[in-house]
Amino acid sequence: MKSHCHSSVRVESAQEEQPASYRYALLIEYDGTEFKGWQKQLNPPVRSVEAVLEKAVSFVANEEIKLVCAGRTDAGVHGINQIAHFDSNAIREKRAWMLGINSNLPPDCAVRDITEVSSQFHARFSAVSRTYRYFIYNHPYRSPLLRTQSLWCYHPLDIIKMERAAQALIGEHDFSAFRSSECQATTPFRNLHHITFTQKGPLLEIELKANAFLHNMVRNIVGTLLEVGLGKEEVIYPQRVLESLDRTQGGITVPPQGLHLYHVEYPEAINPQLMLTIRE
């Protein structure tokens, strides 16, 4: 009986000694121009968003931190409302987290908000949709200020035809014709919720929302729609490319600088309460 009591006390003591672990969600903004993408690479080492963030968060938490993000953006792609989570034993006031992390980040990356979330929340697997925006500066003369944020296209674009052509891509399809050869997704099927076109003077914004995207899917879709906008292909062209399941049938992969990860959507029950950046 005594042995049983002593054993019980030891187990409880061991449990009490184990530090609690908390899960935090981050809202991140970054200019992707000088980054080799989100994902950390060690061989050879490159400048990545993940690497600079993990270093900064680990410093404030006083322990090694591993981040999980909603969307692993490529080199040159920007993040407006990127979401990531991490687990830590550290307890800090929000102000301490924010000031500590941001003071250890370079000028082209910042944490815009942080909040504690349920252990059920996962930045990548809990997401039900992602929204990207691609910007095209459609003007005869280039803009130095927009050169790292948009694609310069000096030929006039027929946006009405581009809108009509895009409708064939809406819905759930096999998007093999719009994925890169490096894509590691287990299935080429994606559900594209919408493609919208908004023109603000010479700046054209193309917004794409889907449950998830294949590697280079957005940039390949935009490149294919550009062929229609430039008058090189008919409105039916994107549909034919989609049905071909052949990447070589589509348009170019447009450059990364025009692409921005704009929004990640989560189920209401576990949606992190973060102050998102809203740009009309």
Structure, described:
The protein has 280 residues and is an alpha+beta fold. Helix content is 24%, strand content 27%. The protein has helices at 2-17, 49-61, 94-102, 159-166, 217-229, 237-244, and strands at 22-30, 68-69, 78-88, 109-117, 129-138, 151-153, 171-174, 189-200, 203-210, 259-265. Strands 1, 2, 3, 4, 5, 6, 7, 8, 9 and 10 form a ten-stranded mixed sheet that branches. A hairpin with an 8-residue loop joins strand 2 and strand 3. The longest helix is centred in the N-terminal third of the chain and has 16 residues, at 2-17. 34% of the residues are buried.
Poorly predicted ranges: 1-16
Counted beta strands: 10
The major sheet is characterized as: 10 strands, mixed
Query: In one word, what is the shape?
Result: globular
CATH topology of the largest domain: Alpha-Beta Plaits
Report the CATH C-level class of the largest domain.
Answer: Alpha Beta
From the N-terminal CA to the C-terminal CA, the straight-line distance is 70 Å
CATH-level-4 superfamily name of the largest domain: Pseudouridine synthase I, catalytic domain, C-terminal subdomain
The proportion of strand residues reads: 25-35%
* Residue-averaged pLDDT: 93
The total number of structural domains is 2
Family: Belongs to the tRNA pseudouridine synthase TruA family.
Active site: 74
Subunit structure: Homodimer.
EC number: 5.4.99.12
